[in-house]
Predict the structure.
Amino acid sequence: MTMHFTTHAPQAPAVPARGRLRPLGQGEVRITGGFWGDRQVVNGEHTLAHIGSRLESEGWLPNFDLAASEGLDERRRGREFSDSEVYKYLEGLSWEIGRTDDPLLEERLRAVVARVAAAQEPDGYLNTRFGRPGQGARWSDLEWGHELYCLGHLFQAAVARERTRPGADDGLLGIARRAADLVCAEFGVDGRAAICGHAEIEVGLAELSRVTGDRRYLDQARLFVERHGRGTLRDIEWGRKYYQDDMPVREAEVLRGHAVRANYLAAGAMDVAVDTRDTGLLNALRRQWDRTIARRTYITGGQGSHHQDEAFGDDWELPPDRAYSETCASIGSIMFTWRLLLAGGDARHADLIERTLYNVVATSPSPDGRAFYYANTLHQRVPGTPADPDTTSPRASSSLRAPWFEVSCCPPNVARMLASLDAYVATADAEGVQLLQYAPATVRTVLDDGRVVAFDVATAYPADGRITVTHVSDSDAPWTLSLRVPAWATGATLRIVTGGSTQQRSADPGMVEVRHSFRAGDVVQLDLPMVPRVSSPDPRIDAVRGCVAVERGPEVFALESVDLAAAGATDVAQVAIAPGTVPFERDGRVWATVQRLPLGRGPWPYGEAESTAGTATAEVPLVPYHEWAERGPSTMRIWIPEAR
Amino acid sequence: MTMHFTTHAPQAPAVPARGRLRPLGQGEVRITGGFWGDRQVVNGEHTLAHIGSRLESEGWLPNFDLAASEGLDERRRGREFSDSEVYKYLEGLSWEIGRTDDPLLEERLRAVVARVAAAQEPDGYLNTRFGRPGQGARWSDLEWGHELYCLGHLFQAAVARERTRPGADDGLLGIARRAADLVCAEFGVDGRAAICGHAEIEVGLAELSRVTGDRRYLDQARLFVERHGRGTLRDIEWGRKYYQDDMPVREAEVLRGHAVRANYLAAGAMDVAVDTRDTGLLNALRRQWDRTIARRTYITGGQGSHHQDEAFGDDWELPPDRAYSETCASIGSIMFTWRLLLAGGDARHADLIERTLYNVVATSPSPDGRAFYYANTLHQRVPGTPADPDTTSPRASSSLRAPWFEVSCCPPNVARMLASLDAYVATADAEGVQLLQYAPATVRTVLDDGRVVAFDVATAYPADGRITVTHVSDSDAPWTLSLRVPAWATGATLRIVTGGSTQQRSADPGMVEVRHSFRAGDVVQLDLPMVPRVSSPDPRIDAVRGCVAVERGPEVFALESVDLAAAGATDVAQVAIAPGTVPFERDGRVWATVQRLPLGRGPWPYGEAESTAGTATAEVPLVPYHEWAERGPSTMRIWIPEAR
């Protein structure tokens, strides 16, 4: 069954024209605390200010002022895509204003929009890097210039603003529309048959079409999607797959090339497929997601195994130590996966989003919200050097979180994701509401036929596996509350307390449904088993053969060198997990039994096999991966060798 | 004991002022056939002509003609270092002329030298990329410009020519000297305190000093070596270690950064250390080699685990599938290791050279000598696409050998190595001759005190482990014949037949010595055990945990998908080596017993462990790694999982 809900306008980052599920936006779901609520507060109070400050000091916002006056070519600072960070900052501000209604942020947003507006040229063109005397001509470097990419982010910002403050008089939507009109004129059916080297314009245009109702933007998005794979971009050392120009989107079997580009394109293609009812394209994207998740995704949900081109490797090529797993690729993966979830309602998509949120998105920022991982390695061999807070770091220095990068796409991407996170918690269909992510929250919405849904969620998840839904209003007619039971949660139970009677039943992984005319005070309680578990990799993932990972609930755990004292070790390379041992919980932490590896080889490291049999064992604590490197430089590994 | 042999002028690529061993050059050792002799013939007959033809068609040689006339800035073709390929070609021609005295090659060499000479500026400057109207100023981009790097290769070419044809009237040595004089003036003690972003000038200047007797060049080489690690080059994303400007050479503990740069610098630093009697520097380089071999070298001898920066990874970071193992890095490693061997006489250095020759240098070129690997992966996951013979390939497309690359350093590097290989077979000291590499050969030399050494080597090595040394002249006084027993050759035996009497003894790994007044007809016969063997990696080499490699003699073997029919498999990812099985020989091939892996996982590749217990086994042949991909596209792996 597919619903049509064009009349709805949720405050959410993706609002397809139709689909199995409709997102509940910020007005309908509010995260009120807990794991994600705490991070949203840090994001709103610290990260956004930090980003705003760096955009000033790095010159990326002042570029707009220079563009509005003169002298930009010599004085412009930053990489060719720096405009986009300003737009992602605007998007983050928009969601945060939607979430908190903070007048200070409103003031900041308006000030930034005014500076951007001043830099827009009369015909709608907007980019600080091209088109002025001394600069390259407009659209002269589609492979690397990122002009359309930047505009895609501008459109997403304008969409976020319009969804959270419809009809605001700040002018952002008008800026976006003028730029989009120019794009349609330049790159339309009769214009240049070209694409941008970095996908993003597709999702931006499609979403802009949704908030404006202007079909031209959707058509233009479709044109850009369909033009991929026609070889309109120059071939490069890494091949045209780097920018997904190697084959048409509907013919591809898997995501490939640059992992952020691949996911952004897939998200835009989803929007086009759904809004234009293109079943062939939709099925192609589902197929690509399936294979990408089965063969090209880290246990953290991270994607991208190549540093060189920030790209997907081949199937099964998932080195933990050279994992790139760019923060932005994970956000792109969530964008793509969320659209598949809305279209089809498959709980597996919500599982992957949860995994990615806890193990990449939560890993990137430091607890104070002012430093970030750009790359998210699964194995740190050498303790890192703390980033100098006053300098700008190379993008992929994965040893410790850094305040800013020369390529600083990740910090504002994390900010916009966290500020909009309420909109990923729950969805609705004609028969009820689906609770997909677990956080303390309030949910208030009205189903299509007018039935009111109102409940609160209480939980200490993921520290604890109990999720308690308490209904706060009376419903005259039955509706269906669906709760996601993650794939790892075998043995989950559901307890339903309605009007004083209690039922209990087991809940298999997938969506578990409770249909009832809920009354205020009724409770639905889900208990997810949070026992630490051990996972082995598919034998084709060569890089982690003979290793296991420890997981608990949605969190992947890591062994960190600072926790190895009991084993008499100082480096994760010195220990292996003892054969047959099972990780356990004690004092609120997860522990494993390890033993020292025999490391007695001489000058040449290849020869007869050595056994660990007989070496002493010790119990050591693990940390949730997202907490690693918060106690200073260390070595770390998610995949722990099994002693033999 | 250290000898001094400045009066000797071997026809060899490295002739230190002193050391434990003196190289025997082309005039003293001649490879007469076999594994390497066959490759030398292909190199001389096909590879050099192929390179010469590509240097013309790519415009890299015509750049010199343009430089001599006009219009270079617009019409110059090739990367900033393309001049160096012309010089390596000249070096290769020089060694090949030394080896074969081929008049056609002599004519070619002279023609190329004349074109290079015409491009040299009056003050000695020589580079087609800088210094002319419309080009960058001389020395204006030391990080990436490669001007000094190119000159280093020019000097090595001039040295090869002077050693093989002393006093030739072609002018090459004069070109080199004029350029070297300019370098000394520009970069001397009172000049710019700068280095080149790619080491090579150091080894070039030191060797030029040796053939000319001009001490200034050695002093300048020393200055360049000592200036590394002073941060005179700009910091970059990968850090200054990329070009070994992160710390002084004498303070480093290991090779790091770009693997070719690191080895070339180490070779140049060795020349400086030996010729200036700098024991501290020499010991530092020994230490670096030890750790590099113990922790940063592939089982093939290849080095460099990062594609991104063509660089060494951290200790133990040796992924087989993302192995870069650049052909040129191996040649640099041989240059460095050979100098250590000459200085100290340690058989381990000859072991590493042998390993690298058989498993990287022999792997790069195709049997016809007209296609090459630039990167030498140890694991190919996806069958490659044959390179288009008419185009130029990206450098690291490791799937199949390609005729030429945009960065084409490797083909001429292989050519100069093969053409000079006779000079790596044997050395001498005051008491005798050391036979280090095994090939059918003649050895004729005179020891310092006038004792004549003359013997022939007969062997089918590495197909067979018997090496037969037959003396062809009478010696009045005893001298010592030393034969290298490789570290893997436990159980080797030596048979000595002198004047009709026969002795037999066991020969432990290292150098085995036979001292005798050899007479014509005396025979020394070494039998190396060539039984296939299994090697396991140090447990810290995470990427190949749970795998073994099969070796036989100096050759590393590989499993190739085209050989898996008996196992019912089409891809090396489908099989593992059966537990406890031992590889064996049959019909001249090496075989292993494999079994199918259970590959039944669903949509998510992490979960419960699966066992191979009970699946059927099959015997499949392996190929020497250097022969892989000679039967068309395939998947391949050196490290084979062990079934559990």
In short: The two ends of chain B are 52 Å apart (CA to CA). Residues 1-7 of chain B have pLDDT under 50 and may be disordered. The longest helix of chain B spans residues 34-57. The domain at 426-527 of chain B is CATH 2.60.40.1180 (Immunoglobulin-like).
